[in-house]
């Protein structure tokens, strides 16, 4: 899910640093259904959806029987005045797919044990994350604008001061 400027670098990062088997740039794939078929020829067991719209539709078509979809976000549908419908809904029936949304707020009580788990896994090198650090409050506006054009690599963070 990356822009053309950083595309190949980010694909390399996803595959070689973060351990994904495959990655592609959605902006370079004119046919998302064909792209998913190419990257996942056996089909998809579990799809974590942050995108919605056309990507979710392509995923529905490429799910395996008894596949599961966890719906976290729908970033492609930010403009709520122009919602995009789903055309491959029938796959839920024919493939007996389960789809369910969730909200992090429902699980706030688990935050302390989540932190414990994540910190110990991070220390053991089992969890890797990437931050895009901008220095100084004066860089905040440009960093914020950059998020909307895919300029950041990893979570955009503004360092206001060194402790
Ligand atoms: N369920 C919950 O409790 C929960 C909690 C937090 C967030 N969310 C949701 O989760 C989603 C992701 O949040 P985030 O903080 O990770 O957002 P983020 O940091 O802004 O990242 C959004 C990512 O989506 C990509 N993207 C944008 N449009 C796309 C499209 N049409 N197709 C494919 N990829 C696209 C962007 O890539 P480019 O920049 O290269 O376009 C970027 O990598 C949001 O929809 C947010 O509302 C849900």
From TrEMBL:
Q: Which GO terms describe its molecular function?
A: oxidoreductase activity, acting on the CH-CH group of donors, NAD or NADP as acceptor
- What are the TM regions of this chain, as residue ranges? none
For the Alcohol dehydrogenase-like C-terminal domain, which residue ranges apply?
Answer: 12-112
Please give the InterPro entries that the UniProt record associates with this protein: ADH-like_C (IPR013149), MDR_fam (IPR045010), NAD(P)-bd_dom_sf (IPR036291)
Return the Pfam families for the record: ADH_zinc_N (PF00107)
Coiled coil regions, renumbered to chain = none
Q: What is this protein called?
A: 2-alkenal reductase (NADP(+)-dependent)
Organism, as annotated: Morella rubra (Chinese bayberry)
């Amino acid at each position: 899910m990356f822009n053309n400027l950083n595309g190949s670098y980010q694909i390399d990062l996803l595959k070689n640093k973060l351990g994904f088997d495959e990655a592609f740039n959605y902006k370079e794939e004119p046919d998302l259904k064909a792209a998913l078929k190419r990257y996942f020829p056996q089909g998809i067991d579990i799809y974590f959806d942050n995108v919605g719209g056309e990507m979710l539709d392509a995923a529905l078509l490429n799910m395996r029987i008894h596949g599961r979809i966890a719906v976290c976000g729908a970033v492609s549908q930010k403009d709520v005045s122009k919602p995009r419908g789903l055309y491959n809904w029938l796959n839920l029936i024919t493939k007996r797919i389960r789809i369910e949304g969730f909200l992090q707020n429902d699980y706030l009580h688990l935050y302390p044990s989540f932190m414990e788990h994540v910190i110990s896994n991070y220390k053991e090198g089992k969890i890797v994350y990437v931050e895009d650090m901008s220095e100084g409050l004066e860089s905040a506006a440009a960093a914020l604008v950059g998020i909307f054009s895919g300029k950041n690599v990893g979570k955009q963070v503004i360092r206001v001061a060194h402790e």
